[in-house]
Inverse folding.
């Protein structure tokens, strides 16, 4: 395919958020935001998405950087997977996210692809989204009329669909509380090969233990793709709350998660039965590693 | 369609070229600037044949809109041997039989170059990770890994 058969006729590189929003607004739905482009360019090549104009937001300073701001970590939407994976702050205070980011695509993809793009592209098993959901992240979205902040989990409508309108709005940042003492997180991924391979499943756990490290105060579990949108294993989380950190409790909880999850048979990802079993395996591994981190921290 | 002006530093020299807004970096490199060392195979960022360095880090030039290179530095395989003298990595690839059909080679070399630039003495695992975004269907990777090991420490 050559460039003439692709449709975007304008490529804009705004230098401020206001300018970028104005560019989108002036083009009334004909323009679309591009960040790293590692998913969008393929979708445009395949004509799964169309745009007359692309507004490249990667030069916007407001969308860069990973910072501790008050009680929160703020990650600019254009932070790349490579930056996330190598950030000392993320590795120390949200290790599941660093682990997820380090397993996206390939080195080349991680150098271009952004966390904001991973979110807005809305694949249920996006490797940064699953840990971010377990971390209870919120997103900040800039629109022509102002900025809104909402839970990441509520953004998803279905595979490839989220409530951020890429022709009018810009996801600017992700916020979440960094993990502290007696807290830990971990990410697990199962795929046919280690690089350039869609996950058969991925999972993330964030645990808060009591001060002795013997009981779960709170557990947050995400596993995907087992539903049209990223999946929180709420029954398992509930079952673990307040229980001792013991194999039996974890086994019972992940059994609940496997019942609640709805993995589908897929030519690429494997059979429903296999994947349902693997939900348990990945959750067990992520819970156990998150506990280790919590006890060490 | 209005052409847009792209100015970038390409293999050490400033280049200005008029490009279609929808042109991808690899198309400008190959079709307009006639640097055909960079290959296109999958066109989806899966194979790494189109790998070039953008500000020193490897990217899939088949997925990068050319205008993203505005004001930035691009290095292609041609930049490894600017005066026709092989780069230590290229020599090592030849000496270790790391080139068979050759189609993946330019991309492999650029991923290896990016690795050695920031980690001159990598472990085998670090080498394998660095080329994990580059597929080779001929060599089985062992010879490529050996060649990169041989070149490490020699690239300055």
């Amino acid at each position: 395919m050559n460039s003439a058969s692709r449709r975007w006729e304008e490529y804009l590189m705004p230098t401020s958020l206001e300018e970028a929003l104005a560019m989108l607004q002036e083009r009334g739905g004909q323009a679309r935001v591009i960040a790293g482009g590692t998913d969008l360019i393929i979708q445009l090549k395949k004509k799964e998405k169309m745009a007359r104009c692309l507004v490249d937001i990667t030069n916007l300073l407001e969308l860069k950087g990973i910072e501790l701001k008050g009680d929160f970590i703020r990650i600019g939407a254009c932070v790349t997977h490579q930056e996330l994976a190598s950030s000392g702050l993320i590795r120390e205070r949200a290790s599941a996210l660093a682990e997820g980011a380090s397993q996206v695509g390939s080195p080349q993809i991680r150098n271009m692809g952004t966390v904001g793009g991973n979110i807005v592209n809305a694949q249920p098993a996006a490797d940064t989204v699953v840990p971010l959901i377990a971390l209870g992240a919120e997103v900040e979205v800039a629109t022509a009329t102002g900025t809104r902040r909402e839970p990441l989990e509520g953004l998803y409508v279905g595979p490839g669909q989220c409530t951020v309108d890429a022709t009018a709005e810009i996801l600017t940042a992700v916020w979440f509380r960094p993990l502290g003492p007696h807290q830990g997180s971990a990410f697990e991924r199962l795929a046919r090969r280690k690089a350039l391979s869609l996950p058969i499943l991925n999972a993330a756990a964030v645990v808060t233990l009591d001060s002795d490290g013997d009981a779960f105060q709170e557990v947050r579990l995400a596993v995907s793709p087992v539903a049209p949108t990223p999946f929180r294993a709420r029954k398992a989380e509930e079952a673990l709350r307040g229980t001792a950190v013991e194999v039996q409790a974890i086994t019972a909880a992940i059994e609940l998660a496997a019942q609640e999850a709805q993995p589908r048979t897929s030519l690429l990802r494997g059979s429903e039965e296999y994947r349902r079993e693997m939900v348990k395996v990945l959750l067990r591994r992520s819970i156990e590693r998150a506990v280790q981190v919590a006890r060490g921290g | 369609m209005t052409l847009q002006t792209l100015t970038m530093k390409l293999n050490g020299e400033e280049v200005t070229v008029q490009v279609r807004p929808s042109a991808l970096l690899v198309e400008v490199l190959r079709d307009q600037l006639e640097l055909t060392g960079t290959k296109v195979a999958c066109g989806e960022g899966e194979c790494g044949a189109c790998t070039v360095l953008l500000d020193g880090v490897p990217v899939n030039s088949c997925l990068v809109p050319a205008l993203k290179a505005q004001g930035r530095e691009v290095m292609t395989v041609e930049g490894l041997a600017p005066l026709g003298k092989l780069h230590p990595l290229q020599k090592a690839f030849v000496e270790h039989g790391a080139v068979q059909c050759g189609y993946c080679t330019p991309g492999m070399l650029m991923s290896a170059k990016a690795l050695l630039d920031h980690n001159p003495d990598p472990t085998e695992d670090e080498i394998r990770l660095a080329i994990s975004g580059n597929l080779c269907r001929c060599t089985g990777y062992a010879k490529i890994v050996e060649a990169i090991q041989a070149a490490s420490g020699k690239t300055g």
In short: Chain A has a mean pLDDT of 95. The CA atoms of residues 106 and 196 of chain A lie 6 Å apart.
